[in-house]
Amino acid sequence: MSSSVLPPPPAQDSPSASLVGVLGWPIDHSKSPPLHNHWLADLAIDAHYHRCPVHPDDLAAALDELRKPPWRGANLTMPHKQACLSLVDVLTDRARAARSVNTLIVREGMLIGDTTDGEGLLASLAQAGVDVRAGPILILGAGGASYGAATALAAHKAAPILISNRTRARAQALADHIGGAVIDWPPDPACLADVRLLIHATSLGMMGESQDLPSLEGLSSGAAVTDLIYAPLETPLLRAAAIRGCKTVNGFGMFYHQARLSFQLWFDVLPPVDPGLWQELEAL
């Protein structure tokens, strides 16, 4: 293992600049650096946001480096969101409930683990005009992304939450965690008839692959469908939902809003929603 796991700051950074970044493996696809660096420049904050490729074997060492100046904090993405739970010094209540961390805050040499994913999803749905209290919600999947979505929805007293997952035991564990219920995988059309919001939180459909996606047969055209995947923006599931006449919400909104909330945790300012920046990053 090298003596330093995290990359050095760019040469153009000022000596006093704080550092933030995103840790993942792989990480080249991340749109977080251009988004956060735009906000830093726009708000005249002396800091820089980096991509940090960190192998899972090096995560503990990377977190040790993060505890030291000039690091202010970091985002975590796959595969580190759950692996870091036992490596941070403090977990917030919502990170503990979600069993996931996407934001690290450095305070006096300690790492605080938090998550903004669930709140980012709620903000994305609200922006799209989706009422999470309108009727039953079905979450497809029972992994880390599903926990973040389900716990945030439950905390906001959303409509009854149903869980469907290929492994029923995992679906039951999540349902028990949030006080929801389980339905079979794949969902029976009759079970979809009353659903008013369907949230896809599995990796199926990533990069446009459609194999093994459940059918939306039975889902009402009055339902809303959102996919937590944002590459591609129109996933096979969203395309199928649009054909049925459903309102569709792609995963970019959740990404954008969780980033705003992470930024606020580090710098105590909430960046505005900039439609021009939004469109520019969607097109990347």
Q: Structural class given helices, strands, pairing?
A: alpha/beta
Stretches where pLDDT is under 50 for at least 5 consecutive residues are: none
Number of helices: 10
Gap from first CA to last CA:
33 Å
- Proportion of helical residues: 25-40%
Task: Describe this protein's structure.
The structure is a single chain. This protein has helices at 32-42, 59-66, 93-98, 117-127, 144-155, 168-178, 189-192, 236-243, 252-267, 275-282, and strands at 18-24, 47-53, 73-76, 90-91, 103-107, 110-114, 137-140, 161-164, 181-182, 197-200, 224-227, 247-249. The radius of gyration is 19 Å and the shape is globular. By secondary structure, the chain is α/β, with parallel strands linked by helices. The longest helix has 16 residues, at 252-267. Helices cover 33% and strands 18% of the residues. α5 (144-155) links the parallel β7 and β8 (161-164). The protein contains ten helices and twelve strands.
Topology overview:
Layout: E1 18-24, H1 32-42, E2 47-53, H2 59-66, E3 73-76, E4 90-91, H3 93-98, E5 103-107, E6 110-114, H4 117-127, E7 137-140, H5 144-155, E8 161-164, H6 168-178, E9 181-182, H7 189-192, E10 197-200, E11 224-227, H8 236-243, E12 247-249, H9 252-267, H10 275-282
Parallel strand pairs: 1-2, 1-3, 4-6, 7-8, 7-10, 8-9, 10-11, 11-12
Antiparallel strand pairs: 3-5, 5-6
Brief synopsis:
The protein contains 10 helices and 12 strands. With 284 residues, the chain is α/β, with parallel strands linked by helices.
